[in-house]
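Here we describe the complex-level prediction in full. Unlike the single-chain runs in Section 2.1, the two entities below were treated as one system.
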Amino acid sequence: MRFVLIGITVFLLVPLLTPIQGADLDKERAAILRIDKEWAVAAGEGRDVDRIVSFWADDAKVYAPGTPLLVGKEAIRQFVQKSLATPGFSIHWETTEVVVSSDGSLAYATGTNRTTLNDAQGKQIEIHGKGVTVWRKDPSGAWKCIIDIWNDNPT
Amino acid sequence: MRFVLIGITVFLLVPLLTPIQGADLDKERAAILRIDKEWAVAAGEGRDVDRIVSFWADDAKVYAPGTPLLVGKEAIRQFVQKSLATPGFSIHWETTEVVVSSDGSLAYATGTNRTTLNDAQGKQIEIHGKGVTVWRKDPSGAWKCIIDIWNDNPT
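The structure predicted for the assembly as a whole is:
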């Protein structure tokens, strides 16, 4: 009887532990890398603004160099539209590292990026940079980018 | 007897739950803000390199604008020493937001910064920026900065 009772008690408590201690961090890391790659492809193609913007959370913050802090989807959408309309603009990034909190709720990623745009003479120039993103799992289980910041490498 | 057994079982399992589900996020947030303020004071005074560098984790990464990625304490120490030796250099930052993962293991912070240095004519100029840090709780329970990135506002 005592073992049955212990069994029942453990049975009742284990579900409380599982969603947190049981987070499969390799799976979460792989999910973020996959989503981020899809995002980089959409941004690289530079056509579908709705799709590009969908990877950020509604309350995301974008810290772009030489630009005031952008807060929320509408400000970010305008920034994306303006970037895509810039002559010679293209963007490509590679995410090299993803670290997920032990409960699988928050993550950060680091990587490098390459942007092109035309200089005053209309010649396309390349800018190499490095960046950090922070990701949050939304209530539906989807990872969304909540912080996006980068800066340039030495020229 | 059955209640004693349940009591003992709960007693044994609760410590497993506590550090995770029981993370006091307000307390963790306050701890990071306090540590970050101490860090800002030390950096603002600009004298004690050991103390300034102690707020980063041994494997921290610093993403400074116009600088290659700095990985680890030694690279960061050299960067700090070089910055402090720059004529007219000073730094000040304000952290406005700290978000902690629900298990209290990882956090990010955002804020603004102001750097001064002398221009070519020896006149001190101010550069205003914005930045993001990522923090990890080390095994001793101390929060350390593991990612540090910032860029400039529009001039």
